[in-house]
Amino acid sequence: MPVESAGSVRPAPPPTRRRSSATPGFVAVTLLATLACVVAYRYSSHHDFFDLKIYVRALRWWAAGNPLYDYVQPDRVQGALYFTYPPFAALLLRPFTPLPLGVTAALFTVVTLVAVVVTTWWLVTPLARARGVSRWWLAAACVPLVLLIEPLRETITFGQINMLLVVLVLADLLRAVPRGSRWAGVGVGLATAIKLFPGIFLVYLLLSRRWRAAVTGGATAAAATVVAAAVAPRDSWRFWTDALWATERVGRTDYTGNQSLLGLVSRLVAPQPPQRLLWVVVAAAVAAYGLWRAMRAARAGDEVAGLALTGLVGALVSPITWTHHVYWFVPALVVVVDAALTATNRHRRGGLLAFGALVYAALAYGVVSFYDWGAAAVPTDSVGEFVARNAYVLLALATLVVLPIRLPRQETFAEKLPYARET
Question: Cβ(324)–Cβ(251) under 8 Å?
Answer without folding.
Answer: no
